[in-house]
Amino acid sequence: MMYAIRIDGHFNYVRARSVPKMMNFMPLAEIAKLQTVFEFRDVEGTIVGFYTPNFLAGVHLPGLHLHFITKDRTRGGHLLAAAPSSASVKLQHAPSVELGLPMTLDFLTMERVRDIEADLNKVER
User: Fold this and answer.
1) Which of 9, 23, 88, 98 has the highest CB neighbour count under 10 A?
2) What are phi and psi of 120, to 5 degrees?
3) What is the mean pLDDT of the chain?
4) Cβ distance 76 to 70 under 8 Å?
5) Backbone angles phi, psi at 12, to 5 degrees
6) For residues 97-124, average pLDDT
């Protein structure tokens, strides 16, 4: 099943990545080339995200997909690693998923024959 996850706490170490804001659709493998990796030490913040089962792989990245944001909400990114020293964890089952698709020319005319699994393997694994 799908779950929403929230972890609030103090972290000895957090490693996260982010990419610049994109105005038009770009394949994930190309966006990843533009990413910046950040490291935070001795920081308070929140990790949020989802656990998605494999059968929803065409809709969302399967497994855990987590993001970190500092307590002051000024820094963060896609979570790569974390070492909490104290934390509270909240988990919520998501029994349904609503999917909204953009109605833009870029989305409606984008190439749909890409090997998304190959892109994910380059970026996530």
Assistant:
1) 9
2) -60, -40
3) 87
4) yes
5) -70, -30
6) 74
Q: Are 35 and 20 in contact (CB under 8 A)?
A: no
Would you state the structure tokens that stand for residue 118, as one six-digit string? 């190959």
Look at residue 34 in the predicted model and tell me its pLDDT.
84
The CA-atom distances, in angstroms, between 106 and each of 111, 121, 125 are 10, 24, 28
Could you give the count of Cα atoms lying within 13 Å of 86 in the half-sphere of its Cβ? 2
| Local structure of 77: helix, strand or coil | strand
Q: What angle do CA 98, 76, 3 make, to 5 degrees?
A: 30
Count of Cβ atoms closer than 10 Å to residue 79 Cβ: 20
Question: Residue 124: pLDDT band by 50, 70, 90 thresholds?
Answer: low
pLDDT at 39: 97
Please tell me the pTM assigned to this model.
0.76
